[in-house]
Design brief:
Blueprint lengths: L6 E5 L5 H11 L5 E5 H7 L2 H8 L3 E8 L3 H14 L3 E5 L4 H18 L5 E5 L7 H6 L6 H14 L4 E3 L2 H11 L4 E4 L18 H7 L3 E3 L2 H4 L4 H11 L5
Parallel strand pairs: 1-2, 1-8, 2-3, 3-4, 4-5, 5-6, 6-7, 7-8
The structure holds cytidine-5'-monophosphate.
Cytidine-5'-monophosphate binds next to loops.
Length: 240
């Protein structure tokens, strides 16, 4: 089977820093990545990234920047300086904003002598459908919009995109092996779907071309989160 080039990302979808750090400590022996989103960032502040880093964890800062290029460049520098391993921006911010994000992140990392964070683009939110896109003035089919924005991200030197499992295979085919695809909506076989609709198993998502899999509640909500993550990682081991 195709080997995952990145890894499994655990979203820390909890409002309290202590709970987030508890999960980090519990799962760190298996070396996953951790996603800090708007809720935890809003409650705990940017220091949470450093605290996870200090414990040896790598952080995907999921704040989806979308603003004028100068402002996004500042946010990108802050993400790099704050110790994010990876962060994302909305592709709809356009070429100038995307280029500003990529170059500011690399520039700040260079200035500090640290590894530059990976910058990923969000194409179309998976909460949007064709009708939702039409309401905001996009008349082309959703899949074409996703592809067009992914191509824009690549032209602007972003390292990859966030995509739903449904789009992964087509994006991989179109964008080549070197472009990162990060996929949420992943459910181990037999797990509850919760509010996710179009899901794939970790193995299917990896086969379809994903590099990073965001898997939340099947791990964080399990009676033994470490055992749940371990069994997911085993299912992704070639030969398993
Ligand atoms: O618990 P679950 O595996 O559904 O968590 C998925 C995580 O990925 C959540 O943090 C959710 O916000 C995020 N996400 C998603 N679907 C998207 C984009 C992000 O589920 N299209």
């Amino acid at each position: 089977m195709r080997k995952l080039k990145g890894g499994v990302i655990i979203p820390l979808d909890v409002p309290r820093e202590e709970k987030a750090l508890e999960l980090v400590e519990l799962l760190l022996p298996l070396n996953p990545f951790f996603k800090v989103g708007l809720e935890l960032f809003g409650r705990a502040g940017p220091g949470i990234v450093r605290k996870i880093r200090d414990r040896g964890g790598r952080v995907f800062l999921d704040l989806k920047f979308h603003d004028i290029p100068n402002t996004v460049a500042g946010a990108a520098r802050a993400a790099a300086a704050g110790g994010a391993f990876m962060f994302n921006v909305h592709a709809l911010g356009g070429e100038e904003m995307l280029r500003a994000a990529a170059s500011a992140a690399a520039g700040e990392a260079g200035r500090l002598g640290i590894e530059p964070p990976l910058v990923l683009g969000v194409t179309v939110l998976t909460s949007m459908d064709g009708e939702g896109l039409r309401q905001v003035g996009v008349s082309r089919p959703l899949e074409e919009q996703v592809l067009e924005l992914a191509r824009l991200c690549r032209r602007c030197r972003l390292q990859g995109v966030v995509a739903s499992p449904r789009e992964t295979a087509r994006l991989r085919e179109e964008l080549g092996e070197d472009f990162i695809i990060l996929t949420p909506g992943v459910r181990p076989l037999g797990a509850e779907l919760q509010d996710q609709k179009r899901v794939m198993s970790p193995r299917e998502a990896a086969e379809a071309g994903a590099d990073y899999l965001v898997i939340g509640r099947p791990v964080t909500g399990a009676p033994d989160p470490r055992a749940a993550l371990k069994s997911i990682l085993e299912s992704l081991t070639p030969g398993a």
